[in-house]
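note to self: dont lose this again. the chain is below, predicted strucutre after it. 405 aa total, dont forget to put it in the shared folder this time
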Amino acid sequence: MTAAAHAPNNGVDGSRLRAGDIFRVGAAGPRARKMRTALSALGVSIGIAAMVGVLGLSESSKSALLDEISALGTNLLTVEAGAGFGGGNSELPESAVASIERLDTVESAAAVYTVDASILKNEFVDPGQTGGLSVVAADTELLDTLNGAVVDGQWLDEATSQYPAVALGSVSAERLGITSLDQPTYVYVGEQYVQVVGILDEFPLSADLDRAVIMGRDAAQAFYDAGEAPTTIYTRVVDGEVDATRDIIPATADAESPEEVTVSRPTDALEAEAAADDALTTLFLGLGAVALLVGGIGIANVMVIAVIERRGEIGLRRALGATRAHIRRQFLTEAVLLSALGGIAGVGFGIVATYVYSATQDWRVIIPTEAAAGGFVAALLIGAIAGLYPATRAARLAPTEALRA
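---
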């Protein structure tokens, strides 16, 4: 027998290792060291779960926000009096609502008026315990202009706006302890009892109205000496004409002092919130990537230790005919398997976290396909990169040197 027959196989002959054999040999290490495998995979799963969860929650939150914006409409403008040149607060003219309604691009306009009266559940409550609630008057078109809804009872109409009757904002109803109008219900406004005819749903774009008790404008002026100058005018504009209308409303509402009229779009705040969510999503994705990198470093460390611990196994396999390529593939497969296990667990954790939190917030659950698939692919790439050096180091071990270890 020649010396060549006893020479170690360095990958230049026809020796082959089938794909199934590579997987079986690569999986032997993780199966034999279950605790180490679990801890190594955990590092990767944390990073993947963070990335999938962040993307899922971001998309679910953004979807809910866009639904809210769509339902409320981006064509609502709020007109208020700004500060005058003297530093004091100015006042909108009494004719401001009628003037704004005459604009061709305005679909509807409704005003809210301040009422100088306290609101209590009954006359026996301490007058100072108002709960931060206020009394306002409103035009009957207000609910339609704001796309509002009634939870119980009805909204003010031409009849109920003529006498002291009120509709409660969502927060007002809660603080006054009124949850149903199955029987006649009254609250104490000013120094008289008035009937509650409706409980309103939340106004997402007008939080002040949630904390208000709303009565008709005519009743407020007749029974509470409310002023005729509007405090706020809500204006619904034809789609596509918001910017143009916004520019001309100040001069239309107050021709003498247009600079003292402030016009804003409430949905700007929601759109700014969506932009802020995007920025936070990028930040949290960065943190998830850092966690994934740490997990990859952990796998690389575990694989280096495995190579050192299994030098004898490597030497024996080389002596029995395994090539350097076979050894390299074995340890690279082991690293990818560790990372794949972490990727699967991480994607699962991320989906569960997204589902649970979205359910508590009444959001639609949205898991972007690219988040789940991309998370798993990222785990495989991290495993391959992390296992490249240990696999190469194992392949370079000479059989005689490895067997002496």
